[in-house]
Amino acid sequence: MAAGGFCGPLAGEFAAFAATLEASATAGKTTLTQLRALDRYTAQQGLPPGTTGENLAKAWLADGATRAPDTRRARYYLLRRFCRFLAARCPGTFVPGESLRPRRRPPKLPHIYTRDEVRALLAGALALRDRASRHPCPIRSATLHAVILLLATSGLRISEVLHLTLQDAGLAEGVLPVRQPEFRKSRLVPVSAGTLETLRAYHDLRIAAAPADPAGAFFVSGRGTGYSTPAVQAIFHDLTVQAGLREPDGSGPRLHDLRATFAVTRLLPWYRDGEQVMARLPLPSTYLGHACISDTEVYLRVTTALLQEANTRFHAFAEALLPAAGDQS
Length: 329
Prior knowledge:
By secondary structure, the chain is mostly helical. The protein has three domains: 90 residues, DNA polymerase, domain 1; 128 residues, hpI Integrase, Chain A (Orthogonal Bundle), CATH 1.10.443; 65 residues. 55% of the residues lie in helices and 2% in strands. It is built from 13 helices and two strands. Helix 5 runs antiparallel to helix 6. The radius of gyration is 25 Å and the shape is globular.
């Protein structure tokens, strides 16, 4: 009989491993999908019950060689974690090492917006035309302005912002409940006084423009329903062009970079004050809703790069002021 929805020779082990992922709130939908794919693969290979080995690991990783780089790496890390789980039960179990880890180009560092750039984006959002045809939206500009402001000042993901409902708004307490699907942790996110004031003003506009269903979307489109992420990204693309941050057909800052900007601007003061940043990393990790600390460590690399860039600029500035070697004038 299948154990926990798994049916291969390692069904019992996969079910136990999935249970540990769920208990640690790291069993996302994608992770469980990949785990079931690995279960089917072991069934196809006809392995004896309860066993795995180097040949299986190499074959599984080779089978995903044509997939996207992030997917290949995710398969590797999931397999490695599962093998380590097995090794704790059965010493001597093969655990994939670094030599099998798929390589990829270093990810492009996110754009860290300046205050002036954020102000330009917010001004551009307020200047948007409220559509008067097809599906009129009398609060389109106010909606996009509030969405961008909330993203910039809270570090929320765009999906989390767009899933907020009227009953979630928390306008009295100034705290937003962010509910997560599957096994990811939900959390409470406080908002700044200025952002709260804007959200309260938007709330009054939204109630007048669309049905006030408590379970309805807080940010609504002209149809009275919530915006989709692609729709907001498309509008944001146009705003970055208007703000001079990209060419119309070129690459440029992303909507998600507002989240990176929020994280980095919180980490920079710790660096400058000589704080033990790694010791304090669980704080922004919890606030940002990361499943594990390693997700937050990405922003450490960005912060370090910014500090190095600032240091380089300072030295260039200082060299221009100081006399050249041997110049006594």
